[in-house]
Amino acid sequence: MINIEPIKAFSDNYIWLVTTNEGSIVIDPGESKNTLDSLKNKQIDLSGILITHHHFDHTGGISDLSKNNTLDVYGPNNDIESITKRVINGDVINVIGLSFEIIEIPGHTLDHIAYYSFNEGNPILFCGDTLFSGGCGRIFEGTYEQMHNSLKKLKCLPKNTKIYCGHEYTESNFKFA
Ligand SMILES: [Zn+2]
Question: How far, in Å, is the centroid of ligand 1 from the Cα of 42?
């Protein structure tokens, strides 16, 4: 059993809540209020947090959610002190019965990573602000070449991979396109 649902945050952020038989994690909690409300409504006790990159709208809720630093908070090498488990390209982490491979995808930021799980043939990817519905993320810190290479890495994943991105930009991306 796996259930993945968005918690809306700010104007267009998605905080992803993933629940299996073994527990629940959130990806990129930029804020804590909506997240805590949602966890309370669903009577969910959080088991961990995954972070894709250092931007505040993806990390601002960590300290409120981390239960006095008792939760594992996975993330890349950056200056966010509340990340307790630093991961790099090729690392594999096991949380709530899911195995995630870390893929470094610099471009939007230099520290940006994605979390990929084969999930028994129903692959899932949490790619933060690198790939959106109808477009890619803005290039703030990396180069266009880095972003292109990062997108090429994601393109190699199985075609049936479900992609969970960090913002709802679909309409504006299609307008731009
Ligand atoms: Zn960002």
Answer: 28
